Amino acid sequence: MAMTVDALADRFAQVRARTERLAAPLSAEDQVVQSMPDTSPTKWHRAHTTWFFAEFALHADGTSGRVWDRPEYRFLYNSYYEAVGARHPRPQRGLVTRPSVAEIADYRNHVDKEMLELIAGGLDPAIAEVVELGTHHEEQHQELLLMDIKHVLSMNPAIGPAYAERPHAPAADPGPSNWVEFAGGLADIGVDHATGDFSFDSEGPSHQVLLYPYALADRLVTAGEWIDFISDGGYQRPELWKSDGWYRAQSEEWTAPEYWRPDPDQPDAWWVHTLTGLRSVDRHEPVVHVSHYEADAFATWSGARLPTEFEWEAAAADYEVVGNVLDEQRDDFTFHPAAAGPATGGLRQLFGDCWEWTSSAYQPYPGFSIADGAIGEYNGKFMSGQQVLRGACVFTPPGHTRSAYRNFFHPHTRWHASGVRLATDRQ
User: Fold this and answer.
1) Topology of domain 5-154, CATH
2) Helix (H, G, I), strand (E, B), or coil: what is residue 152?
3) CA-CA distances (angstroms) from residue 19 to 24, 176, 210, 371?
4) How far apart are CA 40 and CA 48, in angstroms?
5) First CA to last CA across the chain, in angstroms?
6) Around Cβ 423, how many Cβ atoms within 10 Å?
7) How many of the other CB atoms lie within 10 Å of CB of 309?
8) Preceding peptide of 99 cis, ω within 30°
9) What residue spans in the chain does CATH classification 3.90.1580.10 cover?
């Protein structure tokens, strides 16, 4: 069902306001830094999400003369839409000190004003779909904004710079991990786009997949379990690793998850950089910021495996989409994954805390086709060399996930908030 004018206007305003709240704790200096090619400056996220609406809803082309319609913005803030034209290289986004942070704030304000006027006047259904897509696209960038600034702050030689000042209370022990069994059989996977409910193109078409009996761990792998993996030589044992993963781990000298640092005063103890500063690793919290290669090696060490994305979706289909996701306005929100809580007999932490690596390559579903035009470049062009993650994470805006949602990253990447849920076969 298409959104009403009022509902679309409200959603647009709410999403745009959240981006500004997330950027508000950051200085202008914070917002222009790019700490590695995979990350983008906060200023760029704010500008790019604005450019998306200007380009695809307001039809900016740099020639109208309107105050926000500047030709250089089409070049600087186009991410990967080749059909639009030339774009600034991603690894060089941190070199663009001008336009300033203040100018980008003006850009957002002008585009927001015209977008709300456009929506209020009633939209052609095709443009309304683009606007709704744009709000979900901006929510993706809200998550990236937090993950990227976390990496930026971790590079600061002053120990423990914090994005937000929040207290950390020791987590309760979630207890041992237990297996939850599933019978397998034919499973309905993906969404039917004809229902009218929003979903990304790569989440469909709906189709059936044959699953063999399997079991999933009822919670995410904890930091304490990961410390046991480290202590048992997990990063020094090539028999646990896929060849590409072993090469990457050795060449980049991985000895622990991203953001972990050895505690100089205690053997087998670690500190971790979080958005609320540097602190001791809490053994009961989920391990986070591990690559697919590390997740797979840990699963092998555990005598288990990673779930397929189809196993994960079939298991999650009967669970309510609730969990520890982004709530930046709550005073006790820690911007970090939380412990699982007591066992329930079912699956815990399906949504929120950490994105969960699967063993599935990011590939099109049967019947998938790329839409015409630049919008068709949204997902399909990335279906090569990437792994699917499911669920959501602590940086995911509320409402921005579902059991069919397919996130994806390259298998060596670690700066995003990814964790591990184990799987095993059942007879």
Assistant:
1) Four Helix Bundle (Hemerythrin (Met), subunit A) (1.20.120)
2) helix
3) 9, 38, 41, 28
4) 10
5) 42
6) 22
7) 26
8) yes
9) 179-425
Contact between 310 and 209 (Cβ < 8 Å): yes
Does CATH number 3.20.20.150 belong to domain 179-425? no
Cβ 197 vs Cβ 1: under 8 Å: yes
Please give the pLDDT value at position 194: 82
Q: Please tell me the predicted confidence (pLDDT) of residue 191.
A: 94
Give 280's strand partners. 271
Distances (CA, A) of 3 to 122, 128, 192, 408: 11, 8, 17, 27
The pTM is what? 0.97
396-414 pLDDT, tens digit each:
999 999 999 999 999 999 9
Q: How far apart are CA 288 and CA 206, in angstroms?
A: 31
61-87 burial, b for 16+ CB within 10 Å, e for fewer? Answer: eeeeeeebbbeebbebbbbebeebeee
Mean pLDDT of all residues in the chain? Answer: 95
In the chain, residues under CATH classification 1.20.120 are 5-154
Gap between the Cα atoms of 114 and 137, Å rounded: 19
Distance, CA of 47 to CA of 42 (rounded, Å): 9
Read off the pLDDT band of 45 (50, 70, 90): very high
